[in-house]
Amino acid sequence: MNKEVKIFDSFLRDGAQARNVSFSIEDKIKILMALDNLGVAYVEAGNPGSNSKDKEFFERVINLKLKNTKLAAFGSTRRKEVDVEEDENVQQLLSAGTNTIVIFGKSWDFHVTDVIQTSLDENVAMIQDTVRFFKNKGKEVIYDAEHFFDGYKSNKGYALRTLQAAKDGGADCLVLCDTNGGSFPDDIYDVTKLVFDKFQIEIGIHCHNDTGMAEANSLMAVKAGATHVQGTFIGIGERCGNANLATIIANLQLKKNYRCIPKEQMAHLTETARYVAEITNMRLNPGAPYVGTNAFAHKGGMHIDGVAKASNSFEHISPELVGNHRTFLMSEVAGKNAILKMLKKIDPSITKTSKEAKELINILKEMEHDGYQFEAAETSFEMLVRKHLGKYKPFFKVLYYRIIEEDPESSKELSASAMIKIRVDGQEEMTASEGNGPVNALDKALRKAIEVFYPNLKEMKLIDYKVRVIDSGASASKVRVLIESTDMKANWTTVGVSTNIIEASMLALMDSIEYKLLKDEEEAGNC
Amino acid sequence: MNKEVKIFDSFLRDGAQARNVSFSIEDKIKILMALDNLGVAYVEAGNPGSNSKDKEFFERVINLKLKNTKLAAFGSTRRKEVDVEEDENVQQLLSAGTNTIVIFGKSWDFHVTDVIQTSLDENVAMIQDTVRFFKNKGKEVIYDAEHFFDGYKSNKGYALRTLQAAKDGGADCLVLCDTNGGSFPDDIYDVTKLVFDKFQIEIGIHCHNDTGMAEANSLMAVKAGATHVQGTFIGIGERCGNANLATIIANLQLKKNYRCIPKEQMAHLTETARYVAEITNMRLNPGAPYVGTNAFAHKGGMHIDGVAKASNSFEHISPELVGNHRTFLMSEVAGKNAILKMLKKIDPSITKTSKEAKELINILKEMEHDGYQFEAAETSFEMLVRKHLGKYKPFFKVLYYRIIEEDPESSKELSASAMIKIRVDGQEEMTASEGNGPVNALDKALRKAIEVFYPNLKEMKLIDYKVRVIDSGASASKVRVLIESTDMKANWTTVGVSTNIIEASMLALMDSIEYKLLKDEEEAGNC
């Protein structure tokens, strides 16, 4: 039996500190569910007292049945010179209702005296009081020793004394934080080893990437005895980010014989990384170890030749182990299981060896080469499968559209107008709309025309629209558009790719509308 | 005096193996010059025999006077069972004319027998013959031991024997390569130390990032005695990339007391990273250590508060050391020197304390916040300064434009048409053009109208057009457009940012045209 390392994901807390990252409550729930499915031991969210969004998040998820993950709330020690029972922040943290509480406190003498401006003794009391308060409430308490490595360098005795305070308060785990991310693997190893030997309780590690060492530092801490690793799943976080847990999980479990997530989940690592990146509207670094789209992409002639002769000649692991795939081999079966699952949903008679399965694998490969990604847009994938199987009757046909864009200066707010002509059952409808930009105008005109025939489309609205420029294999740069829609009963996401942003948007939009119409028709048929 | 570590940059060789990277000869020369300016010890390019573009590159640069950098050509050992003098590849490598030659050979027994399919003895002879051939020609020879760490694991004795062959052939440096990128810092340290102690010549390290350890591995090798570090400047390379030299230089020089580049160049690290990223049309990872736009961006309220009290409370180094800057402080002087330099170019009477200097700093800050970056678009910055100083008379005014976009299916090739009306000296000109997409149509129409008044504009053509979606501080997603233009006498690059891709393109296009007209007028005036 391999030794366990508990993976603690702070995507929803430290990850939310990343620039330009802002989660809706729906986003947060999706990410929590994805990490639970993957089998991460802990997911940390914020403090329900810090803002109303966090409060609503905890209210909504506290009764969710999670399969693998413990939800943790995060907050600071009590304020200086305040009774812990009367500290508002502490009470709010308790109100999250989680069984696991993370308390962070100061280990660096300079931070105590210069930042929070209190005495070294009071800081020690703040740590011990707060940990004990939550232990007395029956909680599991994880203690985050902020700036531990810098504190240790500055005043070794005091840094260790703060850990002792947390241990004396009853903490279940002491987490050593490299908050400024400036440490190096050899130092991390030495200090973690000393702490591990001295305290004899569970030790955790929390690294930031300011010197590019976050994952190496985490691994060296594990080598020194840490069995709890904090980070964020694709490395997002303030400044240069937190330790990337996707990389750490794969390194520990595939190469160092530790157990981090259930064995059978390892093949979902790549899919999970891409999914959470899409939800966050972040570009997943294509060169990300293990899970990046380029992680097993071979371009050099000699490398391709070598890999063709023996895959380990230029690959350190098999890409299948993490659910990724080699890129140059067009015969490689990408997403075969996903395709089969979808095929069976639509036509249960289809098997792995059916002609349709093979055809769809090829279509999917081509589309991925063109820049499509279906990880976060299953609806578009479903529509594709339905069309290919002939299990789809078109609800409408767009005969043509035209968009007129004026320079924003002369036209002020609504700079674009779109006209569109569609046909439904032999009947044509032409209409027009103005919009704030060409895509908005086109969206409005398209719906207006279709609603004449399908009034139920009025229930549907677009709730998110994400665009990014992608580097596909082709020479022209393309954009990928993701549209999320809702009809208050369900949410679905569709995708379109083109060199032309308007065409990409139109493709995603049409998939979304067709899905709504199909869904309503099937529900009506089932009644 | 600090110990020197030679930085060896393979941007133009291993970096060119990255997916979607394709350098023109102009791009390569720009990157070489940028790395020379920074003070990198070596820049490696390919083999002039491998393709005609590499051949032309060496012909063009071989007589360039480089200040700091040695140019190296890269090739393999002789083929099996061929006399080294008669090996075509070896002869082509010699024809590059560089004083430094990099030879790579096999250290992994499995690669010898299964990939190149020869005997272990013949491989050793191939290495020694080839190194000796170039030494006899008076070259500096760097020997890259491909797959050294995997080879060492598989057959320690044989891996060391291949190094001995290179040393016996006269190699100046033995470079240990983690070609598959699967190694970890502790193993790298142990093996490098053993090699260093045994061979007593210069040892180099060449790491890939497949486990996220490339920079940590490089540092541990230096700790073990390596004094030559290979990588690519912003980490580009096949699969997960090469060791990121920007990170390694900063770590070694600022934190480990080694000398990698001239001390005074350290403050140009960030600028160089952004410049080479733009030339490569790659997005520089915003979270890249030291040089990323987010590397010193503070978002958390407590962090901002802490940094305001003492910058080292949440920063591991001062951003100024690497030419980067802290982001939340709006009073922070971004690019002050660059602004002053440009101001002095246009109006030498202006000083650091002038009102204009302060105003422009504020304007620049606002524009950067809006998503502008001028590192690779100095021309747009110059136009901005000229306009602000009143040193600019408009050549033309766009009165309005309209673009009509039809759905690509019904309109086939040229789906967009643009009409435009401009005014020059009280005279109006209206015209229209078709194009392959809205931007292309607008570009054609704009030039057509302006050329009526300024026929010299016909000399100018657009040679590159790059778009990327950026996350600015604002909520809507924006695009940044970079346009490179030439009139065969000079090349210049301009930038435009907007939520609307058409407007962003138009801004960059107008800057580019105005610059051409201004340049021609000034040249005429000087005659």
Please, what is the average pLDDT of chain A? Answer: 88
Strands of the biggest beta sheet of chain A: in what spatial order? 2-3-4-5-6-7-8-9
CATH fold description of the largest domain in chain A? TIM Barrel
| CATH C-level class of the largest domain in chain A | Alpha Beta
Proportion in helices of chain A:
40-55%
User: CATH-wise, what's the superfamily of the largest domain in chain A?
Assistant: Aldolase class I
- Major sheet summary line of chain A: 8 strands, parallel, barrel
The largest interface is:
A-B, 95 and 96 residues
Structure annotation, total helices of chain A: 18
Beta-strand portion of chain A reads 15-25%
- The low-confidence runs of chain A, each spanning 5 or more residues with pLDDT under 50, are 329-334
Q: How many domain units of chain A? A: 3
Task: Assign the CATH architecture of the largest domain in chain A.
Answer: Alpha-Beta Barrel
Based on DSSP secondary structure assignment, what is the total number of beta strands of chain A?
16
